[in-house]
Model the fold of this input.
Amino acid sequence: MAAVGSAITAAWRGRRGLLLRGAFRAPPGRGCRSGGPARQQQQPLSQPQLPALEVPSAQEITNPRRRGFLAEHAAPFSAFLTDSFGRQHNYLRISLTEKCNLRCQYCMPEEGVQLTPKSELLTTQEVITLAKLFVQEGVDKIRLTGGEPLIRPDVVDIIAEMRELKGLQTIAVTTNGINLARLLPRLKEAGLNAINISLDTLVPAKFEFIVRRKGFHKVMEGIHKALELGYDPVKVNCVVMRGLNEDELVDFVALTEKHPLDVRFIEYMPFDGNKWNFKKMVSYKEMLDTIKQRWPELEKLPCEEASSTAKAYKVPHFQGKVSFITSMSEHFCGSCNRLRITADGNLKVCLFGNSEVSLRDHLRSKATEEELVQIIGKAVGRKKKQHAGMFSISQMKNRPMILIGG
Done:
């Protein structure tokens, strides 16, 4: 065991030495960690200096549990993005804006939310700088969220720049679909290769009640445009709420008969301002029982990835499938590989955790890439084994969903 510990410590010191010698700023022609050419980082905006950053020791970043995991797994992955339970975080969600053109009941309070001043939101270059840093450390999937990401004027440019990051395999977006049909041809050309569209009802009048705005036909147009342009699957997110839309489960499943849709039924989750109540939540098993009454032949599909959040099912001979996101009744914390950056630049290692670290402030205080990686590593290292459970998190102080970014 001592030999293993010594080997890891030596490897750590070697990596840290490379960082200190400027491995992130490779000379022209030399590749970065992902194998692509390294680009010069632009100078961040000048801001008042923060207190001196703590540079953690190897013991802080790779505590015994983390060292043990890394010793047992031959496949290399960043120690900074591996937590103390061995979870490797290769999936990053970045919120591009706190603004939205809808007012969904489960997402934000009816009166809206206090928006962050524009000067405190991440700039385009800061978004790209952080994306590049995470990709260098092993992130291979980035999802752009909001608010509504497609109302950000430079969303196409952001996707085009991210597409140049070597090692990034998937750029996805979660959208309410209002602007999707108009923008999708440009988004696809820029490099967008996965889409989730929120739609909680197939009844236009009920749509207006749930989202407090018009726009049902624009969302449907966006779904059809995504199918037309060859996205497969097109994921449709449906938050199921008792007394509101649980009577439409069968209608949503029927959509998958002739189209390559993945309808994802999401258990209603508690966030500040959305008036969550246990009685409003429809559990995965209850949804499944309802659907099986209509299609008893519904079959469970094998899990595509160990880190998948969805339990997938399919009616035989249907083109598409249905999935269940069981955050409340059967959490999937043990395989979580997700990190989140809010629109104002805070890193959240857990959707339901209220602990946040401001990467924006460190960027603007001219923190080096090594220091940023160390800060990220410390945050990931503090990630808990699982969230506190549905009743506890309903009482916890957290941001409204719109200010987290999903």
